[in-house]
Amino acid sequence: MAGSEAAWQAANMGVQVVLHEMRPQVKTFAHRTGNFGEMVCSNSFRSDDHEQNAVGLLHWEMMQAGSLIMTTAHQHRLPAGGALAVDRDPFARSVTDALTSHDNIQISFEEIDTLPDEGNWIFATGPLTSENLGKAIQAETGADRLAFFDAIAPIVYAESIDMNVAWLQSRYDKGETEEEQKAYINCPMNKAQYEAFIDALLAADKTEFHEGETATYFDGCLPIEVMAERGRETLRHGPMKPVGLTNPHNPEEKAYAVVQLRRDNSLGTLYNIVGFQTKMKYGAQTAVFKMIPGLQDASFARLGGIHRNTFLNSPTLLDAQMRLRSKPNIRFAGQVTGVEGYVESAAMGLLAGRMAAAEILGKPLETVPQDTAHGALVHHITGGAEAKTFQPMNVNFGLFRPLENSGIKGGRRGRKDRYKAYTDRAKADWTAWLEGQA
Fold first, then answer.
1. pLDDT digits over 337-362, tens only?
2. Is the pTM of this model over 0.70?
3. Domains in the chain, please, with CATH?
Protein backbone atom coordinates (compact mmCIF):
# COMPACT_ATOMS: atom_id res chain seq x y z
CA MET A 1 0.00 0.00 0.00
CA ALA A 2 2.60 2.54 1.10
CA GLY A 3 5.10 1.85 -1.68
CA SER A 4 2.39 1.95 -4.33
CA GLU A 5 1.08 5.27 -3.04
CA ALA A 6 4.58 6.77 -2.67
CA ALA A 7 5.49 5.86 -6.25
CA TRP A 8 2.21 7.26 -7.58
CA GLN A 9 2.53 10.58 -5.76
CA ALA A 10 6.17 11.13 -6.74
CA ALA A 11 5.54 10.17 -10.36
CA ASN A 12 2.58 12.55 -10.59
CA MET A 13 4.86 15.36 -9.39
CA GLY A 14 7.06 14.75 -12.42
CA VAL A 15 9.82 12.62 -10.88
CA GLN A 16 11.10 9.46 -12.57
CA VAL A 17 10.48 6.56 -10.19
CA VAL A 18 11.84 3.02 -10.05
CA LEU A 19 9.50 0.82 -8.03
CA HIS A 20 11.33 -2.23 -6.64
CA GLU A 21 9.25 -5.30 -5.73
CA MET A 22 10.67 -8.64 -4.59
CA ARG A 23 7.47 -10.59 -5.25
CA PRO A 24 6.75 -12.93 -6.92
CA GLN A 25 10.40 -14.03 -7.11
CA VAL A 26 10.75 -13.78 -3.32
CA LYS A 27 7.54 -14.84 -1.62
CA THR A 28 6.12 -14.02 1.80
CA PHE A 29 3.97 -16.06 4.15
CA ALA A 30 0.88 -13.95 3.63
CA HIS A 31 0.91 -12.80 -0.02
CA ARG A 32 -0.55 -14.97 -2.78
CA THR A 33 0.36 -12.88 -5.85
CA GLY A 34 2.92 -10.41 -7.14
CA ASN A 35 0.33 -7.63 -7.46
CA PHE A 36 0.81 -4.26 -5.85
CA GLY A 37 -1.71 -3.32 -3.17
CA GLU A 38 -2.53 -6.94 -2.32
CA MET A 39 -4.66 -7.09 0.84
CA VAL A 40 -3.46 -9.94 3.03
CA CYS A 41 -5.70 -9.58 6.08
CA SER A 42 -9.04 -7.77 6.11
CA ASN A 43 -10.59 -6.36 2.94
CA SER A 44 -11.77 -3.25 4.79
CA PHE A 45 -10.35 0.27 4.91
CA ARG A 46 -12.65 0.82 7.91
CA SER A 47 -14.98 3.80 8.40
CA ASP A 48 -15.62 6.17 5.49
CA ASP A 49 -17.24 8.79 7.77
CA HIS A 50 -15.08 11.88 7.27
CA GLU A 51 -17.00 14.04 9.77
CA GLN A 52 -17.06 11.82 12.86
CA ASN A 53 -14.24 9.31 12.39
CA ALA A 54 -10.47 9.87 12.22
CA VAL A 55 -9.83 7.14 9.64
CA GLY A 56 -12.71 8.48 7.51
CA LEU A 57 -11.03 11.89 7.70
CA LEU A 58 -7.80 10.26 6.51
CA HIS A 59 -9.76 8.81 3.55
CA TRP A 60 -10.98 12.33 2.72
CA GLU A 61 -7.53 13.90 2.93
CA MET A 62 -6.04 11.21 0.72
CA MET A 63 -8.76 11.64 -1.89
CA GLN A 64 -8.07 15.39 -2.01
CA ALA A 65 -4.40 14.58 -2.68
CA GLY A 66 -5.20 12.28 -5.61
CA SER A 67 -4.50 9.04 -3.75
CA LEU A 68 -4.17 5.96 -5.95
CA ILE A 69 -5.14 3.63 -3.09
CA MET A 70 -8.26 5.55 -2.06
CA THR A 71 -9.45 6.25 -5.60
CA THR A 72 -9.07 2.59 -6.52
CA ALA A 73 -10.78 1.48 -3.31
CA HIS A 74 -13.84 3.54 -4.16
CA GLN A 75 -13.88 2.01 -7.64
CA HIS A 76 -14.06 -1.49 -6.16
CA ARG A 77 -16.04 -0.88 -2.98
CA LEU A 78 -18.46 -3.45 -1.56
CA PRO A 79 -21.45 -2.89 0.73
CA ALA A 80 -20.11 -2.76 4.29
CA GLY A 81 -22.54 -0.75 6.39
CA GLY A 82 -20.64 2.56 6.43
CA ALA A 83 -17.18 1.05 6.10
CA LEU A 84 -15.08 1.14 2.92
CA ALA A 85 -14.59 -2.52 2.05
CA VAL A 86 -13.29 -3.61 -1.35
CA ASP A 87 -13.22 -6.55 -3.71
CA ARG A 88 -9.60 -7.37 -2.97
CA ASP A 89 -8.38 -9.07 -6.15
CA PRO A 90 -9.77 -6.55 -8.69
CA PHE A 91 -8.54 -3.78 -6.39
CA ALA A 92 -4.96 -5.08 -6.45
CA ARG A 93 -5.07 -5.67 -10.20
CA SER A 94 -6.23 -2.08 -10.77
CA VAL A 95 -3.47 -0.67 -8.54
CA THR A 96 -0.94 -2.76 -10.45
CA ASP A 97 -2.28 -1.68 -13.84
CA ALA A 98 -2.14 2.01 -12.85
CA LEU A 99 1.47 1.78 -11.71
CA THR A 100 2.77 -0.32 -14.60
CA SER A 101 1.15 1.98 -17.19
CA HIS A 102 2.43 5.26 -15.67
CA ASP A 103 4.98 6.98 -17.94
CA ASN A 104 7.14 8.06 -14.99
CA ILE A 105 7.29 4.66 -13.25
CA GLN A 106 9.63 1.80 -14.06
CA ILE A 107 9.07 -1.55 -12.30
CA SER A 108 12.03 -3.63 -11.17
CA PHE A 109 11.39 -7.08 -9.74
CA GLU A 110 14.16 -7.98 -7.30
CA GLU A 111 14.92 -8.00 -3.59
CA ILE A 112 16.69 -4.97 -2.15
CA ASP A 113 18.67 -6.16 0.87
CA THR A 114 20.92 -3.18 1.64
CA LEU A 115 20.48 0.48 2.56
CA PRO A 116 22.15 2.38 -0.33
CA ASP A 117 24.51 5.29 0.37
CA GLU A 118 23.51 7.22 -2.76
CA GLY A 119 20.30 8.18 -4.52
CA ASN A 120 16.89 9.00 -3.11
CA TRP A 121 15.12 5.98 -1.64
CA ILE A 122 11.84 5.21 0.09
CA PHE A 123 11.64 1.89 1.92
CA ALA A 124 8.00 0.85 2.29
CA THR A 125 8.57 -2.81 3.00
CA GLY A 126 5.56 -3.12 5.24
CA PRO A 127 4.94 -5.72 7.90
CA LEU A 128 6.81 -8.45 6.02
CA THR A 129 10.23 -6.87 5.62
CA SER A 130 12.57 -9.56 4.28
CA GLU A 131 15.08 -11.12 6.64
CA ASN A 132 18.11 -9.79 4.77
CA LEU A 133 16.81 -6.23 4.62
CA GLY A 134 15.77 -6.47 8.25
CA LYS A 135 19.35 -7.34 9.18
CA ALA A 136 20.64 -4.37 7.16
CA ILE A 137 18.23 -2.03 8.94
CA GLN A 138 19.23 -3.47 12.29
CA ALA A 139 22.92 -3.02 11.50
CA GLU A 140 22.40 0.60 10.42
CA THR A 141 20.16 1.68 13.28
CA GLY A 142 22.07 -0.17 15.97
CA ALA A 143 18.80 -1.24 17.54
CA ASP A 144 16.90 -4.49 17.62
CA ARG A 145 13.91 -4.65 15.35
CA LEU A 146 10.68 -4.25 17.20
CA ALA A 147 8.28 -7.00 16.26
CA PHE A 148 4.75 -8.15 16.84
CA PHE A 149 2.73 -10.93 15.26
CA ASP A 150 -0.22 -10.14 13.01
CA ALA A 151 -2.86 -12.79 12.49
CA ILE A 152 -5.05 -13.34 9.40
CA ALA A 153 -8.80 -14.00 9.65
CA PRO A 154 -10.37 -16.96 7.80
CA ILE A 155 -12.64 -16.62 4.74
CA VAL A 156 -15.80 -18.71 4.33
CA TYR A 157 -17.72 -19.69 1.18
CA ALA A 158 -21.10 -17.93 1.44
CA GLU A 159 -23.02 -20.90 0.06
CA SER A 160 -21.88 -23.00 3.03
CA ILE A 161 -23.40 -20.64 5.63
CA ASP A 162 -26.76 -21.76 7.05
CA MET A 163 -29.04 -18.74 6.55
CA ASN A 164 -31.82 -20.50 8.44
CA VAL A 165 -29.70 -19.71 11.49
CA ALA A 166 -27.75 -16.64 10.36
CA TRP A 167 -29.17 -13.39 8.99
CA LEU A 168 -28.11 -10.30 7.05
CA GLN A 169 -27.86 -7.03 8.98
CA SER A 170 -25.34 -4.26 9.64
CA ARG A 171 -25.08 -3.23 13.27
CA TYR A 172 -27.76 -0.64 14.06
CA ASP A 173 -28.89 -0.98 10.41
CA LYS A 174 -26.10 1.42 9.47
CA GLY A 175 -25.87 2.48 5.84
CA GLU A 176 -27.63 4.60 3.23
CA THR A 177 -29.06 1.73 1.17
CA GLU A 178 -30.68 -1.60 1.94
CA GLU A 179 -27.56 -3.31 0.60
CA GLU A 180 -25.40 -1.35 3.08
CA GLN A 181 -27.83 -2.08 5.90
CA LYS A 182 -27.49 -5.81 5.16
CA ALA A 183 -23.75 -5.91 4.56
CA TYR A 184 -22.91 -8.46 7.29
CA ILE A 185 -23.94 -12.03 7.99
CA ASN A 186 -24.66 -12.56 11.70
CA CYS A 187 -24.37 -15.85 13.58
CA PRO A 188 -25.99 -15.81 17.07
CA MET A 189 -24.89 -17.68 20.17
CA ASN A 190 -26.71 -18.29 23.42
CA LYS A 191 -24.79 -18.37 26.69
CA ALA A 192 -24.16 -22.13 26.64
CA GLN A 193 -22.90 -22.04 23.05
CA TYR A 194 -20.62 -19.11 23.83
CA GLU A 195 -19.13 -20.81 26.90
CA ALA A 196 -18.49 -24.01 24.92
CA PHE A 197 -16.87 -21.97 22.14
CA ILE A 198 -14.54 -20.22 24.59
CA ASP A 199 -13.56 -23.56 26.15
CA ALA A 200 -12.72 -25.00 22.73
CA LEU A 201 -10.83 -21.85 21.75
CA LEU A 202 -8.66 -21.97 24.86
CA ALA A 203 -7.95 -25.69 24.46
CA ALA A 204 -7.18 -25.63 20.71
CA ASP A 205 -3.71 -26.33 19.31
CA LYS A 206 -1.93 -23.07 18.53
CA THR A 207 1.01 -22.14 16.32
CA GLU A 208 4.12 -21.97 18.48
CA PHE A 209 6.77 -19.30 18.16
CA HIS A 210 10.22 -20.36 17.07
CA GLU A 211 12.94 -20.62 19.68
CA GLY A 212 14.38 -17.21 20.49
CA GLU A 213 11.46 -15.28 19.00
CA THR A 214 9.81 -12.66 21.15
CA ALA A 215 6.76 -10.64 20.26
CA THR A 216 4.15 -8.26 21.52
CA TYR A 217 0.74 -8.12 19.90
CA PHE A 218 -0.84 -4.96 18.52
CA ASP A 219 -4.15 -4.59 20.38
CA GLY A 220 -6.03 -3.68 17.20
CA CYS A 221 -5.29 -7.07 15.63
CA LEU A 222 -5.19 -9.57 18.50
CA PRO A 223 -5.76 -13.26 17.76
CA ILE A 224 -9.12 -14.28 19.20
CA GLU A 225 -7.54 -16.89 21.44
CA VAL A 226 -5.29 -14.22 22.97
CA MET A 227 -8.39 -12.11 23.65
CA ALA A 228 -10.10 -15.13 25.23
CA GLU A 229 -7.09 -15.69 27.47
CA ARG A 230 -7.55 -12.16 28.82
CA GLY A 231 -10.99 -13.06 30.14
CA ARG A 232 -13.96 -15.19 29.15
CA GLU A 233 -16.13 -12.13 28.45
CA THR A 234 -13.54 -10.27 26.37
CA LEU A 235 -14.76 -11.54 22.99
CA ARG A 236 -18.38 -10.84 23.90
CA HIS A 237 -17.44 -7.21 24.44
CA GLY A 238 -15.20 -7.12 21.36
CA PRO A 239 -15.74 -8.69 17.92
CA MET A 240 -18.59 -10.88 19.22
CA LYS A 241 -20.65 -8.10 20.85
CA PRO A 242 -24.39 -8.64 20.26
CA VAL A 243 -25.50 -4.98 20.36
CA GLY A 244 -27.41 -3.27 17.54
CA LEU A 245 -28.63 -6.55 16.02
CA THR A 246 -32.03 -8.29 15.95
CA ASN A 247 -32.36 -11.91 14.86
CA PRO A 248 -35.36 -12.08 12.46
CA HIS A 249 -35.56 -15.85 13.04
CA ASN A 250 -36.19 -15.23 16.73
CA PRO A 251 -36.74 -11.48 17.34
CA GLU A 252 -37.87 -11.89 20.94
CA GLU A 253 -34.64 -13.54 22.09
CA LYS A 254 -31.52 -11.45 22.52
CA ALA A 255 -28.33 -13.22 21.45
CA TYR A 256 -25.65 -13.59 24.13
CA ALA A 257 -22.94 -13.14 21.51
CA VAL A 258 -22.84 -12.67 17.72
CA VAL A 259 -20.18 -13.60 15.17
CA GLN A 260 -20.20 -11.29 12.14
CA LEU A 261 -18.97 -12.07 8.62
CA ARG A 262 -18.29 -9.32 6.07
CA ARG A 263 -18.50 -9.70 2.30
CA ASP A 264 -15.04 -10.24 0.82
CA ASN A 265 -15.73 -10.01 -2.92
CA SER A 266 -18.20 -8.31 -5.26
CA LEU A 267 -19.92 -11.58 -6.16
CA GLY A 268 -20.85 -12.10 -2.54
CA THR A 269 -19.46 -15.65 -2.66
CA LEU A 270 -16.81 -15.10 0.03
CA TYR A 271 -17.15 -13.71 3.56
CA ASN A 272 -14.42 -13.11 6.13
CA ILE A 273 -15.06 -13.62 9.84
CA VAL A 274 -14.75 -10.14 11.32
CA GLY A 275 -12.13 -9.78 14.04
CA PHE A 276 -11.27 -13.50 13.99
CA GLN A 277 -7.54 -13.29 13.40
CA THR A 278 -6.07 -16.47 14.79
CA LYS A 279 -2.93 -18.48 15.43
CA MET A 280 -4.77 -21.79 15.83
CA LYS A 281 -3.50 -24.67 13.72
CA TYR A 282 -5.58 -25.41 10.63
CA GLY A 283 -7.28 -28.55 11.95
CA ALA A 284 -8.23 -26.79 15.17
CA GLN A 285 -9.60 -23.81 13.27
CA THR A 286 -11.98 -25.95 11.26
CA ALA A 287 -13.27 -27.74 14.35
CA VAL A 288 -13.65 -24.62 16.52
CA PHE A 289 -15.20 -22.36 13.89
CA LYS A 290 -17.77 -24.99 12.95
CA MET A 291 -19.09 -24.69 16.51
CA ILE A 292 -20.46 -21.26 15.52
CA PRO A 293 -24.22 -21.55 14.81
CA GLY A 294 -24.73 -21.11 11.08
CA LEU A 295 -21.18 -22.24 10.29
CA GLN A 296 -21.63 -25.89 11.27
CA ASP A 297 -21.25 -26.91 7.61
CA ALA A 298 -18.89 -24.10 6.61
CA SER A 299 -16.31 -24.51 3.86
CA PHE A 300 -13.24 -22.31 4.11
CA ALA A 301 -11.64 -20.57 1.14
CA ARG A 302 -8.77 -19.59 3.41
CA LEU A 303 -7.95 -20.45 6.99
CA GLY A 304 -6.31 -18.04 9.37
CA GLY A 305 -2.58 -17.66 9.84
CA ILE A 306 0.08 -15.71 11.64
CA HIS A 307 3.11 -13.75 10.50
CA ARG A 308 5.76 -11.47 11.89
CA ASN A 309 5.42 -7.73 11.54
CA THR A 310 8.43 -5.47 11.88
CA PHE A 311 8.57 -1.76 12.58
CA LEU A 312 11.15 0.89 13.43
CA ASN A 313 11.44 2.84 16.63
CA SER A 314 10.62 5.83 14.46
CA PRO A 315 10.68 8.58 17.14
CA THR A 316 14.40 7.93 17.59
CA LEU A 317 15.33 7.03 14.01
CA LEU A 318 13.34 9.28 11.65
CA ASP A 319 13.27 13.05 11.24
CA ALA A 320 10.17 15.14 10.53
CA GLN A 321 10.61 14.48 6.78
CA MET A 322 10.53 10.70 7.48
CA ARG A 323 14.24 10.44 6.62
CA LEU A 324 16.56 8.06 8.42
CA ARG A 325 18.68 10.35 10.57
CA SER A 326 21.86 8.36 9.92
CA LYS A 327 21.21 8.16 6.14
CA PRO A 328 19.11 11.16 5.05
CA ASN A 329 18.95 9.87 1.47
CA ILE A 330 16.59 7.17 2.74
CA ARG A 331 12.99 7.61 3.83
CA PHE A 332 10.73 5.00 5.37
CA ALA A 333 6.99 4.80 4.81
CA GLY A 334 4.06 2.63 5.73
CA GLN A 335 3.62 0.12 8.48
CA VAL A 336 7.35 -0.29 9.00
CA THR A 337 7.31 3.24 10.46
CA GLY A 338 4.95 2.22 13.26
CA VAL A 339 1.53 3.08 11.90
CA GLU A 340 -1.08 0.34 11.83
CA GLY A 341 -3.61 -0.40 9.11
CA TYR A 342 -3.93 -0.21 5.34
CA VAL A 343 -5.12 3.41 5.32
CA GLU A 344 -2.49 4.72 7.71
CA SER A 345 0.26 2.87 5.82
CA ALA A 346 -0.83 4.26 2.46
CA ALA A 347 -1.12 7.75 3.97
CA MET A 348 2.49 7.64 5.13
CA GLY A 349 3.43 6.50 1.61
CA LEU A 350 1.58 9.50 0.23
CA LEU A 351 3.58 11.86 2.42
CA ALA A 352 6.92 10.16 1.80
CA GLY A 353 6.40 10.21 -1.97
CA ARG A 354 5.54 13.89 -1.97
CA MET A 355 8.38 14.79 0.39
CA ALA A 356 10.97 12.89 -1.64
CA ALA A 357 9.78 14.30 -4.97
CA ALA A 358 9.70 17.86 -3.62
CA GLU A 359 13.25 17.49 -2.33
CA ILE A 360 14.47 16.16 -5.68
CA LEU A 361 12.74 19.05 -7.47
CA GLY A 362 14.35 21.56 -5.12
CA LYS A 363 11.02 22.65 -3.63
CA PRO A 364 10.88 21.16 -0.12
CA LEU A 365 7.35 20.90 1.25
CA GLU A 366 6.03 22.96 4.11
CA THR A 367 5.59 20.95 7.30
CA VAL A 368 2.38 18.92 7.21
CA PRO A 369 -0.17 20.71 9.44
CA GLN A 370 -0.30 18.83 12.73
CA ASP A 371 -4.05 19.30 13.05
CA THR A 372 -4.72 17.18 9.95
CA ALA A 373 -5.03 13.39 10.10
CA HIS A 374 -1.81 12.99 8.10
CA GLY A 375 -0.07 15.54 10.31
CA ALA A 376 -1.22 13.93 13.54
CA LEU A 377 0.12 10.55 12.40
CA VAL A 378 3.48 11.72 11.08
CA HIS A 379 4.02 13.90 14.16
CA HIS A 380 3.26 10.90 16.38
CA ILE A 381 5.74 8.56 14.70
CA THR A 382 8.54 11.10 14.24
CA GLY A 383 8.61 12.56 17.71
CA GLY A 384 5.22 12.80 19.36
CA ALA A 385 5.27 9.28 20.75
CA GLU A 386 7.26 8.10 23.74
CA ALA A 387 10.20 6.19 22.25
CA LYS A 388 10.56 3.80 25.19
CA THR A 389 7.02 2.50 24.81
CA PHE A 390 6.51 3.06 21.07
CA GLN A 391 3.98 0.68 19.51
CA PRO A 392 2.05 0.64 16.20
CA MET A 393 -0.83 3.12 16.19
CA ASN A 394 -4.02 3.59 14.19
CA VAL A 395 -5.12 7.14 13.45
CA ASN A 396 -7.48 8.38 16.17
CA PHE A 397 -8.66 11.68 17.59
CA GLY A 398 -6.47 11.11 20.64
CA LEU A 399 -3.51 12.07 18.40
CA PHE A 400 -5.08 15.45 17.58
CA ARG A 401 -4.29 18.63 19.48
CA PRO A 402 -7.18 19.85 21.64
CA LEU A 403 -9.52 22.48 20.27
CA GLU A 404 -8.84 25.92 21.70
CA ASN A 405 -11.66 28.15 22.98
CA SER A 406 -14.24 26.03 21.17
CA GLY A 407 -16.91 26.11 23.87
CA ILE A 408 -17.63 22.45 23.07
CA LYS A 409 -18.46 20.22 26.02
CA GLY A 410 -15.92 17.62 27.03
CA GLY A 411 -16.54 13.91 27.60
CA ARG A 412 -19.03 11.73 25.78
CA ARG A 413 -21.78 14.37 25.68
CA GLY A 414 -19.72 16.71 23.54
CA ARG A 415 -18.05 14.06 21.44
CA LYS A 416 -20.13 14.49 18.27
CA ASP A 417 -19.57 18.26 18.14
CA ARG A 418 -15.91 17.84 19.08
CA TYR A 419 -15.22 15.30 16.34
CA LYS A 420 -16.95 17.52 13.77
CA ALA A 421 -14.79 20.44 14.88
CA TYR A 422 -11.65 18.29 14.58
CA THR A 423 -12.56 17.27 11.03
CA ASP A 424 -13.55 20.80 9.96
CA ARG A 425 -10.24 22.16 11.25
CA ALA A 426 -8.29 19.36 9.56
CA LYS A 427 -10.01 19.82 6.20
CA ALA A 428 -9.27 23.53 6.14
CA ASP A 429 -5.60 23.00 7.04
CA TRP A 430 -5.15 20.11 4.59
CA THR A 431 -6.75 22.05 1.74
CA ALA A 432 -4.48 25.02 2.40
CA TRP A 433 -1.41 22.76 2.55
CA LEU A 434 -2.24 21.16 -0.80
CA GLU A 435 -2.99 24.52 -2.40
CA GLY A 436 0.44 25.75 -1.27
CA GLN A 437 2.01 23.08 -3.50
CA ALA A 438 0.08 24.04 -6.63
1. 999 899 999 999 999 999 999 999 99
2. yes
3. 2-145+312-435 (3.50.50.60), 152-308 (2.40.30)
